[in-house]
Every structure is written in structure tokens, then in C-alpha cells.
Amino acid sequence: MNNKFSLRQFRRKYGTHEQCLEAIKRICYPDEMNCDKCKKLSIFYPIKGRTAYTCKYCGYQIYPLAGTIFEKSTTPLDLWFFAMYLMVQTRSGISAKQLERMLGVTYKTAWRMFRQIRILMAEMGDDMLTEIVEIDETFVGGKGKNRAHKWIQGVEEKQKEVLMGIVERNGKAYIRHIPTTGKWALIEQIQKYVSPKARVITDEFLGYASIYKYGYKHDSVNHRSQQYVLGDIHTQTIESFWSGLKRGIYGVYRVVSKKYLQAYADEYAWRYNNRKACGGMFNILLKQVVNVRAIQPSLIK
Ligand SMILES: [Zn+2]
Q: How many whole angstroms from 49 Cα to the centroid of ligand 1?
């Protein structure tokens, strides 16, 4: 699948800062274009030692990195690209600590790169799911066995953070960090991401009991009576998503603070949602570098 893009191929294509800059320039601009200044159909050449390109006729300069997550960074682009490669090649992600070791940069730099690349992986679309959609919540952090306590609105749940998963079978996943498992919190997300044309499948949790009132066709599977599959009524897609996500959280990161839980969920969902991307996940992420440019200032603190 994605492994087709081997490290050897990657190094050949994006092994130097200049190659990476050229790749971004090619996404932003055609090979030939009309110069803004002299108005001629021109070719822009790289200026050695800088991140600018210059018009072959008048010397007008363009800056492909302007506004991107790379603009103010002193880290060479080939290291950025390698970090992006690592983040898409792994199933559960890598930690800033691993990035630090593999890139040979400081922890602080690795952490910063990691956060910036995650911005590229944040959920941007809000197209509604319309087919068979499985919905479930899970708890992250805290103590105790999650599912066992799901039915008890007890004190222990307060220690845990709630992730809500909305996954279309053979389609896209939305994962949201929500404040509680209360009915209103759930319905708010469902209305945002699920079209009333969809057929919704959940477990028998009461929070979902009234979603038919909002126009959804709804089936639920009764886990308490050991019923896990009834025809196509099951929540196995979202459950296997949760087990992968938790392997990532507990295996790679050990702990994900409340503050970064949504970013991790986005990163994980991003890989899931782009798993079949033609051209490979890396190219999708690379295009995001340019796409995110317009909205970037509001996202980066
Ligand atoms: Zn010009």
C-alpha cells in the first residue's frame, strides 16, 4: 500500500533541501507562468542559498514557502520532509522523542515540527457521511476498565477524556474530543457530520436512543446481552479503529494530555482517511503544506 514509497525512493526524491524546495515550488506554480512584474511568460529559477526563485527576464522574486509551516523555520526542508515521511509511514504515529533521535535535532525542534506537521493533518473538511455510519465513544486516560464503566454515570468517568468516533463503513472517519457522553454532546456531533440520509448504527447506549427524532434511521446492537453482530448491525469498524488508536496512544505516546488529544485523534484519523489515497499519503500531506497556507496564522500559536 503506502509502503511502496520506500525510504530509498524517498531519499532519492527528497534527499536535499533544494529538492524539497523545488517540490513545493512545483505545487504552487506552473513551470512557465506570467511574471507579476514584467508580465512576460517566464521561467523562474532558484536563487542559490535562498528560498526564493527569480524571473529570468526582470529578476522579480517569488517565495514558495511564504505562509507555509516552513516559512520561519531554520531547519532544512529535507529534515521536515523526512519527519513528514515518518509520520505517514507509521500506522500509529511517532513521538517527538523518536523524531528527535531519527532527525538528530533537539527535542524542542522535534516537538515543534511535530506540532506543525499535525496542523497539516487536522480535519479540514466537514462533508457529511451519508451511508452506513457507525458511531461510538471511547474513554482515554484515567483508571479503570472503560467499557465496564460506560453504563455507570459515575465519578470515575470524570478522570477520563471522551472521544467520539463517527465512521462510515468503507469511508471516512471523524473523531472528536467531546466534553461528556451526554446526549446533547453526542447529537451535536452527529448533526454536524452525519446526513439524515445515513443509516446510523450504535450500541445500546441511551445517549443514542433518541436520534431517530432527528431523522436518522437507527439500529443498535446489544452488547450487554453478548450480541455483537446481527446481520449488518454491528460496530466492528469503529471498534477496530479504537483499538488501533489506543495502541498508538498507549504504545507510542504513553500519555496524551487533554490538550493534545484532539490533535492526536486528527492525526490518527488523517492516516485512516487517506489510507487508500492514490499517489500515496505523503503526496497528500505535501499538498496540504500549500493548502494550509491560507488559514495558517490562526492555527499556530
Ligand atoms: Zn519578470
A: 21
